[in-house]
Amino acid sequence: MSSQQVERERTFALSDGQQLPDLDGLLRTGRSQVHRMRAVYLDTADLLLIRHRVTLRRREGGPDEGWHAKLPRPDGSRLELHAAMTQGPGRTRVPAGHLRAVAAALGPAWPTGVEATLLPVATLLTERTQTDLLDDGGSVVATLCDDRVVALPEDRRWRELEVELVPAAVDDALLDEVSERFAAQGVLPSDSPSKLGRALGKRPDRAARGESLRSRDPAAAVLHSYLSTQVAGIVGREEDLRADAPDAVHKARVATRRLRSALRTFDRLLDREVTDPLRDEVAWLAGLLGAPRDAEVVRDRVLGRLEGLPPELVVGDVVGLARACLTEEHARAHEALVEGMSGERYLALTDSLLDLLADPPWRGRAGRRADEVLPALVEKAAGRVARSVRRTRAHDDPDGPEALRERHVTRRRAKAVRYAWEALAPALGPDAAESARRWEEVTEVLGELQDVVVARARLLELAATAEHAGVPSFSLGVVAGEDRVAVADLTARGDEAVDRALQP
Fold this sequence. Notes:
Layout: E1 2-7, E2 9-13, E3 28-43, H1 48-51, E4 55-60, E5 66-72, E6 78-83, H2 96-106, E7 119-134, E8 140-152, E9 156-165, H3 173-184, H4 195-200, H5 203-208, H6 219-235, H7 238-243, H8 248-265, H9 272-307, H10 318-341, H11 344-358, H12 370-393, H13 401-428, H14 430-469, H15 474-502
Antiparallel strand pairs: 1-6, 2-9, 3-4, 3-7, 4-5, 5-6, 7-8, 8-9
């Protein structure tokens, strides 16, 4: 069930020790209650909603617990929509009616695709003393809320008063009288238009100007921005993943890798009791995504190689057999992905991802400047790459199975370094971006090597299938032989790229 009403309220600033203003002669006070509330506000990455005077939140605790959307009206007031909050897996999902209303309110400004993903941008913890305000007849005409607020993730704290007319109350003239009475006692309207506006500070203005993070920003702010991007890359592609839209699986899988890597590389700034179980669940999703992605890569590579052979080297209908086998393999993997995304485990995972952004488990030096904390953690990750390289080069056969397995480990660790520098680049600038570029070269070459190794193994399986089906496997052997030459070339290029990346 959902409902709507016109919001009629005023907010006033109050210092922590200041006395409540007196309304004697205007209104009488009635019942008082204390509520402890947690409100998670959602917005796009560039804070599009708040910049258009739209707010969307999920509030836990208090008499109006549930989902709230506040939409601007032509007369300057705001329409408030309310919907009940669900429990269990999927509880963080915005109600469809609220989502449609927000999109309609923004009109042409509403983005599409991943850019439209709504993620937690602030969490307000409020201790509210709520008092009924009565008219001479004893009817409740308004509520007075004395709020003490803590805003996360910046940990801003303040106190404010909020006076809101009940829906059936008299007109807004009563609010004018309350404001005059408060002003006479030194209690003035708040400078901030809303709690969310105060929590976000200058972030909306910076977003509107397209300003990036700065090196002097807290490490937590830099990481929160990066984690938000990766979570959006996962939950913002659900429809495309189900439809098997081009490149959707690949991009979502990369987002899972980047997310897990960031939680690992920067784990000294996070409570691992929270993030380690989350990394495990993201790994489960990565596995679901990996199967159709790997099948897609092998299919495209094998078919591309077979179709690129000179006609005289294509013996029998080997292309048709390979296409049928590999297409069926991809279809089965995609079906398993969709099935997994339809279950409670996936819903619970997306809840956990959004909870991570709403209340990040920071610890240690997360509040220190980004340039003082983060580069050293990336260098530690680079040290793990160097150790893996030394183990690889200790093998007698640089292209043998053991060396190739160690190069795969090197590739994974190099990806962690690349992703980390990419996370830091918006704040730390060109030097971090150049480091990311060097490590990207490493991961691209070693990634191509891994694709060749996986495809070569699949070629051998296809050869056995072809022989069983009575289709000559000669062409598959030709491609496998060419790939063996490619492995030697890629291992040499990978070694050179790693050496360049590890240079001071």
